[in-house]
DNA sequence: CCAATTCATACCCCAATGGATATATGTTGA
DNA sequence: TCAACATATATCCATTGGGGTATGAATTGG
């Protein structure tokens, strides 16, 4: 199931990877070297995480000489925002679901 | 790193598990047997997924005789909603970040 | 009281994944 | 041209995790 939601959740489920994405959102674009400094893992691992983030559409990379500048693309988060909103929406239609359940069982 | 965000993302990253949660949001509470019917996996696997969803706070279970009724708790999604909103928020302060990057490199 | 039912737990297996190190590729500066 | 640098790729390893089957525990109906 190569679903968009699955890819997004899976990509963001790793703390190291999510931290990289957060830094790019907070502080703007950065090179691989700069990202490696505070990542707590080796440079190849950072590159691998960036590759996964890129495949998920969450970051994009631009080559400048021997450096690569990565920047966040938070628009890619919109499926997640939509999904969470939809789940909450479904729930609103049954706001008293728990009470109903308790009543049903209690009778 | 037992972070809340990590747990939520990880829990929702599995399609089978997310489908169970979605069904509970859409259709209200269900027993393990009812959930197993359309899950595509065996009952023990469904129970295991429910256990993980419960640990993440996304569902709650109530015993009624030999059945267990599970219901969704979409309020547990709020950290996700907050996180995505915050990431987008950070980004707004640098809406022209990509253009700046291109300009910087292009010069 | 016993058999069937419902769910949870235990155990095993295999694929996926995050990490490391080594190395390849490409780029700049002297 | 050549050495240093920046990044990507390759390979390996240990762990995680999702799936299955078998079985335990609890409850109900006859």
- Percent of sequence in beta strands of chain A: 5-15%
Helix content of chain A: 55-70%
In terms of quaternary structure, the protein is: homodimer
The biggest chain-chain interface is: A-B, 40 and 39 residues
Average of per-residue pLDDT values of chain A = 89
Number of helices of chain A: 6
- Count of extended strands of chain A: 3
Q: What is the structural class of chain A?
A: alpha+beta
User: Which spans of chain A of ≥5 residues are poorly predicted at pLDDT below 50?
Assistant: none
Largest sheet of chain A: 3 strands, antiparallel
- CATH C-level class of chain A: Mainly Alpha
What's the layout of helices and strands?
The structure is a homodimer of 107-residue chains.
Chain A: H1 4-12, H2 15-27, E1 30-31, H3 32-37, H4 43-55, E2 59-64, E3 67-72, H5 78-92, H6 97-106
Antiparallel strand pairs in A: 1-3, 2-3
Helix pairs in contact in A: 2-4
The structure holds a DNA duplex (30 and 30 nucleotides).
Report on the architecture of this protein:
The structure is a homodimer of 107-residue chains. By secondary structure, chain A is α+β, with helices and mostly antiparallel strands. Chain A has one domain (4-106): Orthogonal Bundle (Arc Repressor Mutant, subunit A). Helix content of chain A is 62%, strand content 13%. Chain A has 6 helices and 3 strands. Chain A has helices at 4-12, 15-27, 32-37, 43-55, 78-92, 97-106, and strands at 30-31, 59-64, 67-72. A 3-stranded antiparallel sheet of chain A has the order 1-3-2. The longest helix of chain A is centred in the C-terminal third of the chain and has 15 residues, at 78-92. The interface between A and B is large, with 40 and 39 residues.
């Amino acid at each position: 199931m190569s679903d968009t939601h699955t890819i997004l959740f899976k990509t963001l489920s790793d703390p190291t990877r999510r931290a990289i994405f957060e830094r790019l959102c907070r502080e703007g674009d950065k090179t691989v070297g700069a990202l490696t400094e505070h990542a707590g893992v080796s440079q190849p691992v950072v590159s691998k995480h960036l590759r996964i983030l890129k495949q998920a559409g969450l970051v994009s990379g631009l080559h400048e000489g021997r450096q690569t500048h990565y920047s966040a693309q938070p628009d890619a988060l919109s499926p997640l925002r939509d999904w969470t909103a939809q789940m909450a929406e479904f729930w609103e239609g049954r706001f008293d679901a728990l009470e109903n359940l308790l009543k049903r069982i209690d009778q």
